[in-house]
Amino acid sequence: MSAYIIETIQRGIIETIEMTFFASVFAYIIGLPLGILLYATSGGRILENRPVNFIAGLLVNVCRSLPFLILLVLLIPFTRFVTGSSIGTVASIVPLTVGAIPIVARMVESSLNEVSPGIIEAATSMGASPLYIIIHFILPEAAPSLLLGGAINIATVLGYSAMAGVIGGGGLGAIALQYGYYRYQKDVLWTTVTILVIMVMLIQEGGNLIAKKTRK
Amino acid sequence: MESVFKLENVKKIYKNEGKEFTALEDVSLEIHEGEIFGIIGMSGAGKSTLVRTLNRLEDISSGSVSFYGQELSGLKAGEIRKIRRQIAMIFQSFNLLNQRSVLDNVMQPLRIAGVKRSERKEKALEMLRVVGLEEKRSQYPTRLSGGQRQRVAIARALAGDPKVLLCDEATSALDPRMTEEILDLLKEINRSRKLTIVIITHEMSVVEKICDRVAIIDKGRLAEVGEVKEIFRTPKSAAAKKLVFPSNPFDPSDKDSRLIRIAFDGLEASRPFIAELVEKTGKKVNILSANTKSVGGIGYGQMVVELPEGAEDQDIVINFFKDNGLSLQEVER
Prior knowledge:
The complex is a heterodimer.
Chain A: H1 3-40, H2 50-65, H3 68-74, H4 76-83, H5 89-113, H6 117-125, H7 130-163, H8 171-182, H9 186-214
Helix pairs in contact in A: 1-2, 1-5, 1-7, 1-8, 2-5, 4-5, 5-7, 6-7, 7-9, 8-9
Chain B: E1 3-16, E2 19-32, E3 36-40, H1 47-54, E4 62-67, E5 70-71, H2 77-84, E6 87-91, H3 102-112, H4 117-130, H5 146-159, E7 164-168, H6 176-193, E8 196-201, H7 204-210, E9 213-218, E10 221-227, H8 228-233, H9 238-244, E11 259-264, H10 266-269, H11 273-281, E12 286-295, E13 298-306, H12 311-323, E14 327-330
Helix pairs in contact in B: 3-4, 3-5, 4-5, 5-6
């Protein structure tokens, strides 16, 4: 491999990390509250509210059922509106975030569902408000499970970021596509794929480790 | 005596997919300040629902529940939360936060009540001293035994200086020795802090050990309510008899013979009255079950005996026991 290719791959790694990091952060900023809303408003929960739960659930399901590649294309006007461009690393963060939000929301909802109803009953009997119960009882109790879900979500975003290469996003995915696929450079293709696999493994193992340390 | 809780004609109906289920029907009772009040019944009798109406974890369908004269059903969310801070509760499954240390768990109610951080810690440590677990303050609940977890739950319950403590099957998940320890602790807290305690249980032994009065719940209705020793001596309702009578008496020699249960308290327990019966009347009885135990701190005993054949002989035996001040009941088979 030429020095130019090696430099390109190095830049690709950084871009992939950037995209994954920012998309994950933004996805959690919206997805975490959305997941809490899905959980708290569902039947028998502390803020049971059928209409709100139905609408939030519908929104999440519709977004989730769109293949990511289609979402990428559909979101081009929105991406251009937000970032001023529809190609490049920064622009890819927008569809990545939108694609990850429903996944994050469902993952958060499922983690919160694992919290024992007894703990919520105990909190209610102490005279805590629903918001207090969510912040000081449900979230801390679900923390190890939320962290594990977090690792899975970040690995998913990383996988999606490779797809963003198709519509002109940056990162390792774009390099694999351009050099490995369009120019038949098998060595570039396998190198980038190997790096992506290693990155996913690091995220997953790191997540497992942190979750294990958190679980008391 | 001031009443802490007053229930009048409480009714609770659960609606599930169009089907109605009556969990409580026409329950009226009063719980007095400073007493340990037991609520006993078989599983599914409605006792857990009943205790949850006391802090409105369950809304009632009709009737009224009042706490120190204040009707609970009309209160707004914020008002009922304030009331709940005076009504602590412990549970069969402890319901501690596993991701928080023992000390953090005990501080929870104080935090909810908005007590200052430094005071919270001081108060929580004091409560851990009361339950004898101060040295476990930085441990996590999963590292503790069941009995220790329930002690932490009791410390947490006491931290907010409640007026009442509700115990929902608090000893049902514990082995006999730990049950004993927890009950002793509850009794001690009741005495030293003058705390009213309501205990839900399906075990008569729990009621006999620490309760002053007891309500027996059967199929959502109040079967009987009264002093524990009175109910032990002369249970009236079928549900009470089922709970109080020995569960496994020896089979009688004749399947049609008459059986009676004799109950006696501390005074008579020391008299050899069966021997006296034989000596004075010449009639014999067959003992099918006999035991003595402590009920509310006084030695109580009960015996199931098979009477001799012949109505005349039976009357002689019954009169002998009655004349000696023993409580008798027919045992139905």
